[in-house]
Every structure is written in C-alpha cells, then in structure tokens.
Amino acid sequence: MAEDTFQQIHEIGFKRLIDKFKTHTGTEHPAVRRGIGDDASVIVHEEASAICTTTEVFLEGVHFDLTYTPFNYLGYKIVTAAVSDILAMNALPEQVLIGLAIPNKYSVQMMEDLYRGVDAACRDYGIQLTGGDTTASHQLLSVSVTATGAAPADKLIYRDGAQLGDIVCVTGDLGSALAGLRVLMREKKAWQESRSESQFQPDLHEYEFAVQKQLVPKARKDLIESIAESDIRPTSLIDVTQGLISELGSVAKSSGLGMEVYSPAVPIALETRRIADEMNEDVDKYAFYGGEDFEMVFTIPEESVEKFKSDFDDFVVIGRMTEKEKQLTINTGEDKSYQLEL
Length: 342
Ligand SMILES: Nc1ncnc2c1ncn2[C@@H]1O[C@H](COP(=O)(O)OP(=O)(O)O)[C@@H](O)[C@H]1O
Ligand SMILES: Cc1ncc(C[n+]2csc(CCOP(=O)(O)OP(=O)(O)O)c2C)c(N)n1
Ligand SMILES: [Mg+2]
Description:
This protein is α+β, with helices and mostly antiparallel strands. The protein folds into two domains: 9-155, CATH 3.30.1330.10; 167-340, Alpha-Beta Complex (Phosphoribosyl-aminoimidazole Synthetase, Chain A, domain 2). The protein contains ten helices and 13 strands. It has helices at residues 9-21, 71-87, 108-125, 176-193, 208-215, 221-229, 244-255, 270-278, 283-289, 305-311; strands at residues 32-34, 42-43, 50-59, 92-102, 128-136, 142-151, 167-171, 236-239, 258-262, 296-300, 315-322, 328-333, 336-340. The longest helix is centred in the middle third of the chain and has 18 residues, at 108-125. The protein is globular, with a radius of gyration of 21 Å. Thiamine diphosphate is lined by residues 56, 63-65, 81, 181, 241-242, 291-292. Residues 85, 239, 241 line the site of magnesium ion (MG). Residues 165-326 form the PurM-like C-terminal domain.
C-alpha cells in the first residue's frame, strides 16, 4: 500500500525513479543477457527457437480506476495481461518491458508500489523486468506492457488450428472478473453519493473471490506447463480477455469452422451467480461477454479429452467444432438453440 509520504516525481527526476524500479525486476531470467540500463534489453538463446512478442496498453479511466485499485495490484494485473498472451501461444514468457506516462498527481511512492506488484507478478511467472520508458503525462496515468517469450517453433499453438469434431474446453470459471468490477463500481457509487469525507474503504469480504479476480488475476501458466508435460497437444489455444463469445468466435472463424457450445456447461462460480442476482443481471451475460477472465480456451481431439484430464484437471468441456455453416451455435439446453454469426 502507498506510504503516507507524497514525494513529487520531479523532486528526484526520472533517472532516480528508474533506479528505484531497478530493485523490482522479478526473477533473474537465464536468457536475459542485459536488462534495465542499456539502450535495449538483450536475450540470448542457445537453441534456435520462436520468439513471441505482445503489447498491451492500459489507460486510467478506460482500463483501470485508481479509486479502488491499489497500485501494487495494478502492477500485478498488467504483467498478467501481457504474460497471458504469451502463454496463449503455448510459449513461456521471459521478459516484460513497461512504458509509463505519469501525471504529477502521482508520487514516487505510488510508482514504487506499482513496481512492487510488477515484481511480485514477475516472480510468480518466473520472468524478468528488463526495461521500459518513463515520461510525463498531463492528466491520466498510462501504462503499456510488452512481454516476450520463447518456444520451439513446432510447439506453438495458434488460434486457427481447431479441427472438425474437436472438443472445445475452458479452464477455471468465467464472469467472475466482471462480477468483481460490478461490485467495485457499486461501492464507488455509494461512496460518492454519501459525499463521505473519509477514504474509500468498502467492506468487500463477501465478494473476495470476484474482487480478487478483477484486481489481481493470475495467468494460466499451469495449463501451459501441463501441456509441456503431457503427450497431448491442443489444436488451438486462446486466452479469454475480451469475453468468452468473442474468443470462441475468433477460434471458429480463423479455423474456417463453426462451433456448437452447450451453454449450461460454461463454468460459473457460485459467488458470480450471487453477485449477478444482487445486480438483477443475467449471469450468463457475465460469463459470455465479461472479459478479463484470463482463463484459456483450447480445442483437442475427442479421444484425447479423458487422457488430458489426468494431466490437468481444471477445465471443462463446453462444446465441439462443427461445419462452418453452423456458425457459433449456442445450445441452451431443452433443445433450444440460437446462432451467432461469425
Ligand atoms: N518505466 C520503466 N520501467 C522499467 N525500465 C525502464 C522504465 N523506464 C526506463 N527504463 C529502462 O531504464 C533504462 C534507461 O531508460 P531511459 O532513460 O529511457 O534511456 P534511453 O535513453 O536509453 O531510452 C533503459 O534500460 C530502459 O529500458
Ligand atoms: C475502470 C474499468 N473499466 C472497464 C474495465 C473492464 N475492462 C478493462 S480491459 C477489458 C478487456 C478488453 O480490453 P482490451 O484492451 O480490448 O483487451 P485485449 O484483448 O487487448 O487484451 C475490460 C472488459 C475495467 N476493468 N476497469
Ligand atoms: Mg489476448
């Protein structure tokens, strides 16, 4: 959490601010030859392999709200977002670089808290913070994160590899990140309407699972590790950031196929259902369109499902790849279904 002191960044300057960031670089990754300090980071691979890169931009007010987001959680979440994209190629992340544009309403201490979260995430994912850029901003904090990772080229899994008849699977549960966001937004509104002079300190203990999932999501490195150890390889893989329906559509469309999804099979946590009830909203909408779940969707041949279950058990089957003509068919049970165009 932020300390009580508020030191203006211009008092110490960007160079000394970056020096502080240098003490929060996560794991020393063996492939990193040069980290923070030179003009560019350097990665050295002994064996030829594929390199994956990805960038995510996060803008205050659009992607995060600092009323209810502690800086260290924000640091953790931005690393998760970039790492999740690397993992979704079935590659292992190695480094992240972070670009910051900081308005002067934020202090040195706040930025250090942000980097404490970056450091914690880098340690959890076994990666190193190797560089970035720091600049001033007028009103809003902007954070961009670039991650790179590596894999043997023939091990990469793309979103367009699904085959006719393959089974569609999803890890964990869906919709809880949006449920957490709804709770946080409701509490913020109540606090604003109360015109309270006190700090925003809502009691969130009944919503801990969903709020954690919104504020400090974890990327599914465990799935990628299990794939590496298993002799089964998914035919396609994508992470759930925009929302389940959007990702399923991407897999089907890019694979040149259709998909049938059995909606009662979509995994939803009890707490997510309770929150949707409280908000008088349809929990299926949370799960289908929520986004920011950082779960993984993958397809595998039908005969591999049981075997893979013994290698990795935190997934469920939600559908099957079909002919293209079926588009994205949502089967709601009781023989009712509707089609979404791809
Ligand atoms: N926000 C940041 N987070 C992590 N590393 C940073 C950040 N800003 C700058 N760096 C790293 O600090 C070093 C110096 O950065 P900078 O002063 O921008 O140098 P340059 O003129 O080479 O761009 C570089 O290695 C850069 O990657
Ligand atoms: C203040 C605030 N507004 C909105 C959201 C919800 N939100 C932020 S990012 C996101 C997912 C889509 O982001 P995008 O940058 O399009 O994702 P990408 O596929 O590039 O990862 C969602 C649903 C939030 N967490 N906080
Ligand atoms: Mg993505």
